[in-house]
Amino acid sequence: MSTRANPGGKPVGFRGGGFAPKPRRLVAPVLFVTLFVVWELGSRMGWITPLILPAPSEALEALRDLAASGMLWKHLSASLVRLVAGWSCGTLLGLAAGIVIGLFSLARAGFAPMVSALFPIPKIALLPLFIVWFGIGEGSKIATILFGSFFPTVIATYGGIDNVDRSLIRMGQSFNLSHAAIVRNIVLPAALPAILSGMRISASISIILLVAAEMIGAEFGIGAYVLMAGNLMATDQLLAGVAVLSILGLGVNALINRAENHFLRWRA
Amino acid sequence: MDLEISGLGHRYGSLEVLRDITLRIPDGRIVCVIGPSGCGKSTLLRLIGGLERPTLGQVLQHGEPPAGSLNPLTYVFQDFALLPWRTVAGNVSLVLEGHPLPAGDRERRINDVLGRTRLSEFAHVFPKQLSGGMKQRVALARALSVNPAVLLMDEPLSALDGQTRELLMDDLISLWSREPFTACYVTHNLNEAVRLGHKVVVLSRRPGMIREIVDIDTSIAERTAGDAYLVTIQQRLWESMREEALSADRELAPDGSGDLA
């Protein structure tokens, strides 16, 4: 057989490929750097007035001042304490509620509609109530974050449990595994991917609520700092605060990525 | 331990899937159940092992399961049902974990069954990395690890390609020859049935009833793929099933019966 193309034939056109995202490591850094360079240039050349949008270098300067004065740590630690306390309590309670709803029909019949009713309420709207209930101090802020992360975790957890492959559960029953062993060894590991992606969402919601709660009444915290900068029209400081929040978000995301890589090795 | 199935009938709502099944699974023998798709073969197997409650009739045990049997009635599933987050050894370990075993016994059992199914070198591999045939070997190892009195095999080779199926059939035959086990083997593949079965039970289409029971006398180890005697039996079984299979094929699926087959 000749490998040479027959001159009379028409090649069949290629129409496959695509739909398979590949890692492109350099693209994001290059895009970011370009954006910042253009922005910085724009400010220096006077195309962008500092009042409307300060140059990145000014925001960086504000951040450096904040760090040098020691206030960065004070704001950040106050925020982190609230975030960690609120999110971890909300996630633990959400996991417990989600598991109960996922496993028991009675709990599902009672709680699932309640979750649907309460989830869409913006928790920040309830902050005044939380202040009455839990005090103006840390309690009300932590409660806001707790409720904000509770509901997405509940929904992700029982959704994950609903989607566990029933043939695996039947296998467990066929080997006489106890109910507890089936939940521990089959149901929960199978629901873990859904639970982790729920945590990713609840962590972002928590950061948003953290800032909102701190804007309403806090002496320290990134939200309080951003609000104060806004009130003084110190846009460079405002941007510095926003940058800290963005880095916080990236950090949380990186932690969850690590958790996924560790716990979901078997998927790779 | 013998299993006796007496007067078993089952219905899902108004849909009757099994009618008056009476059958004995004698100790140390393999009973194959064949029938057209949707005839209730798998339902029958679930009823035998207590995963579902029959509408009529009962399943009886005669005699005691062998000493050291952790799970007398043990299934092997068509889709393997392995936990993807556990290694091969971990999947076997799962079904031993609930039992109070003397120290070291669990490891001994795991090593023993992985050796018998020739999986020892894959003990620490995740199921995702294994071929279909290997996955079913893991499921078989898991089933053997609890020392079952009766293996309930639900189309164990149907998800595999033809060549792998031949290899696994040889494995099953050599496992049985070394240490005869009792099994109820459900399949739609006539060739598997005549190669592995001491007794072949033919079910009619829905509602599944016993049409015919054929005993095959030659010893399992001596049967070969082209054996004239087996070919004759297979031919006869096919003749008796052909019409049924044809009309079963043309039947519309009843509502909500997606997994009756």
Explain this structure.
The complex is a heterodimer of chains A (268) and B (261). In chain A, α2 crosses α10, α3 packs parallel to α6 and α8 packs parallel to α9. Chain A contains ten helices and no strands. The two termini of chain A are 42 Å apart. The mean pLDDT of chain A is 91. Chain A is 74% helix and 0% strand. Chain A has one domain: MetI-like (MetI-like fold). Chain B is α/β, with parallel strands linked by helices. Chain B has two domains: 165 residues, Rossmann fold (3-Layer(aba) Sandwich), CATH 3.40.50; 65 residues, no CATH class. Chain B has seven helices and nine strands. In chain B, a hairpin with a 6-residue loop joins β8 and β9. Chain B is globular. The model of chain B has no long low-confidence stretch (mean pLDDT 88). The interface between A and B is medium-sized, with 18 and 22 residues.
Q: Can you summarize this structure?
A:
The complex is a heterodimer of chains A (268) and B (261). With 268 residues, chain A is mostly helical.
Strand count, sense and closure of the main sheet of chain A?
none
Helix content of chain A: over 70%
* CATH architecture descriptor of chain A: Orthogonal Bundle
**Class computed from helices, strands and strand pairing of chain B:** alpha/beta
pLDDT < 50 stretches of chain B: none
Question: Main beta sheet of chain B: strand number and arrangement?
Answer: 6 strands, mixed
Number of domains of chain B: 2
**CATH structural fold name of the largest domain in chain B:** Rossmann fold
What oligomeric state do the depicted chains represent? heterodimer
> Quick one: overall form of chain A?
flat
Task: Determine the number of helices of chain A (DSSP H or I, runs of at least 4 residues).
Answer: 10
Distance between the termini of chain A: 42 Å
The percent of residues in helical segments of chain B reads: 25-40%
Which residue ranges of chain A are poorly predicted, with pLDDT under 50 across at least 5 consecutive positions?
Answer: none
CATH topology group of chain A: MetI-like fold
What percentage of the residues of chain B does DSSP assign to strands (E)?
15-25%
Radius of gyration of chain A: 25 Å
Ends apart, CA distance between termini of chain B: 28 Å
